[in-house]
Amino acid sequence: VVIKILDENDNAPEFVQQIYTAVIPENVPTDFSIVTVKATDADSGKNGEVQYFIQDDTDSQPVSFFAVDSETGVVSVIRALSGKGRSEPYTVKIRAVDKGIPPLVSFCHLLVVVGDISTNDGVPQFIRPTAGEVAYIHENVTVGTEVFQVVAFDPDNSNTANGKVAYKLLDDQSSEDHDYEFVIDAATGIITTQAPLDRERKENYTMIVVAHDFGFPPQEAHRVLRIFVLDVDDSDPQFERPLKSQPIEIRLKEEEPIGTIAGVVKAVDNDTGVNSVIDYYILNGNDDDVFGIRRSSDNKGELIVQKRIDGENITKFTLTIKVSKPSEPVTEFGQPYNYQDLSQTQVTILIEDIDDNSPAFETSSYVLGARGNTEIDTELVILHASDPDASSSPILYSIRNITFIRPSTQQNMEVLEVFHVNPQSGVLSNNEPLGKYVGGHFDITVEARSSPGVHNVAFANVKIYILQDRDLLKFVFYKRPNEVREIIPEFEKALKLAVAQPISLNIYDTNFYARNDGSLDFESTSSCFQLLENDVIIEPKKVMKILNQAKSSTVKDLYTNYSVVAIESCAPSREAYKMLWSEIVVLIVAALIAVASFIFCILICVMYSNYTKKLKRTSYFHSVYMTENGGHPPILSPAEQQRIYEWQEMNAPLADAASFRSYPTLR
Questions:
Q1: What is the reported pLDDT for 574?
Q2: Cystine design at 110: which of 20, 31, 500, 518 (Cβ 3.0–4.6 Å)?
Q3: Phi/psi of residue 266, nearest 5 degrees
């Protein structure tokens, strides 16, 4: 039977020496091996394997100067020792640990003497500020306030000049060309202010701090220190603008959704952090609180739409914006804009129109009459539609349908060519005479379109009754036509009020008044008219009844104010003409002259007929004679020839000249 005894980690490592010593000059290079420490462990296997470490509870300097190889126990220099020479040795505590579980430990000490090679070779080293460390100080602090304390040490003996440290700033503080804000105490290293600090003027300072000893030659070290000036809430927010600047202009489309950002304004506060936060207010110009303003994440003022904006009702807002600190809220509103106050600015918001409305006629139904003798291309009515949208195109008019209706014969037909409408002006006129349409009426559908699209169109119905003059009455004004045309719109309104009934009035023409004898009165005007009730034409008899039943005093005053002297039938009524005696005498004389002329003409015709017969007879005898005798004797006696000559002389002025010259000459 073989019994194997298993090892147990019951032995701690043991150093060969409890104290090791070494002497090295301060100028040895790094990685220089000083000494090898050795420890053994009686256990076997892992329990007997030993590792070495420097115990960091010893003097802090040896820990940073030396290192030990964990496997071999070789102690070496890991940092330059220049200036670290001293009479007292550096003590390094080394720990030996086995690999057992749990591990066992033992210790030894290494005493290292670093010898000085040269005088004052120790360079001061900074404890504060550390690399990258910064200092902070509030602006506006009292001059002389402590900012920071610099701390440094010298590895040389502090009891000697080589080891004593003093402080200064690298800049030449004695220069009279500069005003330095900071000063450092050479002995304590305390940096204090020596001038007021204004963060808005300069928010940080960078300086080089020098720590030096008093050895020969002196040694010094440098460290950069940045001092940041902390903000104090000592600046008021304001707008960066000239005193007499123009308002900020913002364009906004109407009907933008509530919550839309209409525009942004920016003010500045030279403070930082929470001290630079700005609150924005609308002082005036915000009718009905249409807009609100809020601070954005980047400290700007966002104008927000709070209510519906209709560009047809208002086209511009001029807002006065004011800024302040949150700690000083604005409580008074409505003050006028003060251009000298840079905490205020003006914003003009121009509302841009969008085409969101359809055109609309002044009235959707027109009822009027036209006389049968109306001339071609007469202006019957002016149709007018409007679109409140400024961005819409000009309205164009067109006729969609024309239907003629004659109730007496139940005739109903489309006649598209009878009327036309001017596309631009909306004037409705006739293309042909209307006499054949008397007794009927036209239903006309007129379209008004502002722009393409089914929503940009409106329709109106025009009903035109074709009337004879006997279906109309006329007002007789003691005014000239041009004066009457100017007062007709007012007269129509006044008559409706005076009658006090739901009627409408159509006046058709303004002409010089024609008397019953057909003569014109150039100082008076007649205007044919009709009354309508519920878009139906009222007969003349009923019209007279309505006008007579109206409040007599009111209508009488109306007629007096507008110089209405009579109401008559529009159809001309002519009386039998009575002739004067002078006119009768003239007619009788004219009749006698006509009768005498007629008798004279008959006489001439008879005489001419007799003459022609005699001439034919004479020609016959002459031809016979010439045939028988070959001569040319006279046919008439001298007495007959003389009578013919006398007759010619007597009748030559009364006969036609051509006819007279055509008579033959008897030879």
A1: 54
A2: 20
A3: -130, 125
For residues 459 and 447, is the Cβ–Cβ distance under 8 A? yes
- Which residues does 455 contact at the CB level (< 8 Å), separation at least 6? 358
The span from the CA of 78 to the CA of 71, in Å, is 17
* Residue 629 scores a pLDDT above 60: no
Residue 366 CB neighbour total at 10 angstroms? 22
Under CATH, to which class is 14-115 assigned? mainly beta
Comparing 14-115 with 125-230, is the CATH topology the same? yes
Question: Three-state SS for 212?
Answer: strand
Paired with 346 in beta bridges are 320
Q: How far is residue 113's CA from residue 92's CA, in Å, rounded to a whole number?
A: 11
Buried b (16+ CB within 10 A) or exposed e, 3-37: eeeeeebebbbebeeeebebebebbbeeeeebbeb
Mean pLDDT of 636-658: 49
* Residue 525 reports pLDDT greater than 70: yes
pTM of the entire predicted model: 0.43
State the first-to-last Cα distance of the chain, in angstroms, to the nearest integer.
210
Cα–Cα–Cα angle for 171, 175, 178, nearest 5°?
85
Query: CA-based Rg of the chain, rounded to a whole angstrom?
Result: 65
| Residue 189 DSSP SS3 | coil
Write out the two tokens for 401.
């349908």
pLDDT tens for 280-299 read 999 999 989 999 999 999 99
Enter the tokens of residue 217: 């030659």
Contact 289, 334 (CB under 8 A): no
* All residues at 6 or more sequence positions from 45 whose CB lies less than 8 Å from its CB, including other chains: 7
Instruction: Show the tokens assigned to 239.
Output: 């707008």
- Into which CATH architecture does domain 360-467 fall? Sandwich (2.60)
The pairing of strands 248-253 and 344-352 is parallel
Q: Are 269 and 366 in contact (CB under 8 A)?
A: no
Q: Would you say 222 and 208 are in contact if contact means Cβ atoms under 8 Å apart? A: yes
Name the residue ranges covered by the structural domains of the chain: 14-115, 125-230, 238-352, 360-467, 471-569
Higher pLDDT among residues 452 and 170, named by residue = 170
Alpha helices in 501-580 (DSSP H): 540-549, 552-561
487, 492, 494, 497 alpha-carbon torsion, rounded to 10°: -170
- Structure tokens of 445? 């559908």
User: Is domain 471-569 classified as CATH 3.30.70?
Assistant: yes
